Amino acid sequence: MVYSFAPGRVPPEGIGEDVLGGKGANLAEMSRVGLPVPPGFTITTEVCRDYLAAGRRFPDGLKTQVENALAETAALLGKTFGAGPDPFLVSVRSGARVSMPGMMDTILNLGLNDDTVEALAGRTGDARFAYDCYRRFIQMYATVVIGVEDGVFEELLDAARDKAGVGRDNELDADALRALVDAYKAAIIGDMDEPFPQDVHAQLWGAIGAVFESWKNPRAVTFRALHAIPDDWGTAVTVQAMVFGNSGTNSATGVAFTRHPSTGEKRVFGEYLVNAQGEDVVAGIRTPDPLLPTGHHDGHAMSERMPEAFERLNALGERLEAHFGDMQDIEFTVDDGTLWLLQTRKGKRTADAAIRIAVELAGEGTISREDAILHVDPALLDMLLHPSVDPDAKRQVFARGLPASPGAAAGMVVFSSTAAEAAKADGKPVILVRPETSPDDIHGMVAAEGIVTTRGGMTSHAAVVARGMGKPCITAASMVRIDPARRTMRAGAITVREGDFLTLDGAAGEVLLGELPMVQRPLSGDFATLMEWADSIRRMRVRANADALNDAEVARGFGAEGIGLVRTENVFLEGDGLQVMRETIMAPDERSRRLVLDRLLPIHRDTFVALFEKMAGLPVSIRLLDPPLQEFLPNDDEELGRVAEEMGMAVDDLRRRADELHEINPMLGNRGARLAICYPEIAEMQTRAIIEAAIIAGERSGAPVVPEIVVPLVAYYAELRHLRERIDAIAADAKSRHDSDIRHLVGCIIELPRAAIRADLIAGAADFFSFGTNDLTQTTLGISRDDASHFLTRYLDEGIIERDPFINLDREGVGEIIRMAVDKGRAAHPGIVMAITGEHGGDPESIAFCEEIGLDYVSCSPYRVPVARLAAAQAAI
Ligand code: PEP
Ligand code: MG
């Protein structure tokens, strides 16, 4: 239940994050490497699960194990828990399997009471310091464990500052702090009718229970839902010896990144505060100083003020990078000149930085190219492909702050997270402006396009969280004065009201007035390098779903190796296509329909020629018309009247036809293959257009084009066989008319469970399959893809499902059906090409599944192509 860590005394290898939590495992690992980590012990996540399941009861035997570990750790440092002359103080921290920054509780300086505080004062010769620790501990303990409102203590602290006539907390002297401690204790009794515990063991057990408890607090629950972290993991608790960053001017606390988290530059980057404790940096209450001088050398930088500790930090940083093989985010404390590392973890970074760091680490030989590929979260690439403010746009700067997270976004100003969420629900883009953010603001940050805080720094909550979310963020815009009552803010002479538009330039740290145009940034050389590496490693090919020439162009720019799906419904809308299509639908019989369709053929053919030419010999899969015809007809009276007039026909006739075509459940109605069977002339026209276009494009370029014709929504083998015969016949006719002998392929999309079940037979009539997982998810789950969000959100909230199956492929259900179809299809038709063309083709986890079952390619929206290339490489490693 309990594992100790200290140099030379560490848990057995193999006891990892699932047991010790990320923090505990990390401390064990750091101790193993021999880094200067304050010693301590970790209570496992299993104990947390047992504790919560048993109605907040600690398991038998835990007490003895904890007390033993505690006594041993104290002895190691020559200190005593709960007694002088050198009292042992500890921190009690949460630690889930994955980092959940700021979501759960932490208690520092535990072990102080009315006696030990005096002993600490005596030992350090600094009563001010001892009482400062004590008042911080009482405040934390009371808010976290006893449940007193934090505001109570803030008010008393304000009053103490006023009384002493000082502006900052660290200017309060020992007597003032002693009085403050008494006031705090009285406030706790007044508020909760319960005294602050003097028994240090009672303090410890109270804190351990509260940390376990904090696994269930609302912000932790929201965070888990957001990051798909299972609710049943539980948190570990780490109890660790305190070291003091606030024990005088030769002490400090800070955060260091081994490389720059925004640019990736190889140079220690971070902030520190002299004579302070860790939470002062994170909370953004005091403005920290940089580790290295930035521009002007004013002597405040750590490298200038504490050169020895800085050098040691720098050297340890390099050692950590070499050991963990990645950029590290280190929390450190200097206690009277001695450097301690409190924590190190993989540093959060922007997409730009992630790519540069991965490529450079591989270049330096610290990691392999495969590791470099694994280091970059494909989802981060999305951020790179996001736009930035058009450099030609006229900028009117409202305020400047720190460039905490890059990217650009425009939206309407709101001043609270609740307002952000409400506006987002109304479909409005918003910029959230706050003095600073806390974990309670997560929902507002999720809803916002970008975030501005007037306080904080590069490592404050808003900065870290926004970088993780890939949203632009500007912190420390200190010239901005927010007036929450009026819902306005002012900087200089300019006032901005709630609802006004602002644009953020995260990279420049500028808040701009109005809604500015955006452009796509050019991609860096490191991006190209990483993509090259990915391409050389991945097995699956990556195509794009593209309906228009413009999509095809974007897709090629991002490295698509073909088009996996052209949804031809849009081609029917080109030029006066809609009008002609309506005439087709209104025509009384097949013969007249064919006459009208003859007019659509050249439009189709021209579109396909352009597409083939744009793709320059890369494969292009074109799908026959899929949606039900009613989608082409007007659906309200006003529209009906207008269209009837345009077409020169009676409204009643049009309405009658619309009524005839109307289906109660069109997604399960006459669409896909069914449409091609009932209206063969449409499929024939499309086939002829595709074949003719391929002939023309091939002749122009001198390289033959092999068009791929896709039949949608197939259920029966006989359907596909029937349609294939017709398609092949029309193709043969078109080829002979043009005296051409090009090849063409015919395949189908598997979008119905029946087609998957009969995949062996169907494979006999198909040159290729693609899995249309949008429809296949819809038809397998019987959940309408257009209506799902109303109730699936509830399912997610209730924990009934962990992922939205329309975003992340439902491996166990839909995935198993696909696996079966792949196996059956391959057995019957070795070498048949198989792919995925639903939205899941751009989702990294779904792509990993596609690799697992051996699909030949994934096809996704053009902007996701780089994501898919990287994810496919990761899946192949
Ligand atoms: C699918 O159903 O997954 C698919 C690719 O087709 P569409 O999204 O056009 O229905
Ligand atoms: Mg479909």
TrEMBL record:
Residues 428-509 form the PEP-utilising enzyme mobile domain. Its cofactor is Mg(2+). Mg(2+) binds at residues 751, 775. Keywords: ATP-binding, Kinase, Magnesium, Metal-binding, Nucleotide-binding, Pyruvate, Transferase. Substrate binds at residues 567, 623, 751, 772-775. InterPro entries: ATP_grasp_subdomain_1, PEP-util_enz_mobile_dom, PEP_util_AS, PEP_util_C, PEP_util_CS, Phosphohistidine_dom_sf, PPDK_AMP/ATP-bd, Pyruvate_phosphate_dikinase. It catalyses: pyruvate + phosphate + ATP = phosphoenolpyruvate + AMP + diphosphate + H(+). Residues 18-54, 63-291, 309-354 form the Pyruvate phosphate dikinase AMP/ATP-binding domain. Its EC number is 2.7.9.1. GO terms for molecular function: ATP binding; kinase activity; metal ion binding; pyruvate, phosphate dikinase activity. The keyword ATP-binding applies. It holds the Pfam family PEP-utilizers_C. The keyword Kinase applies. Residues 524-875 form the PEP-utilising enzyme C-terminal domain. Catalyzes the reversible phosphorylation of pyruvate and phosphate. Belongs to the PEP-utilizing enzyme family. This is Pyruvate, phosphate dikinase.
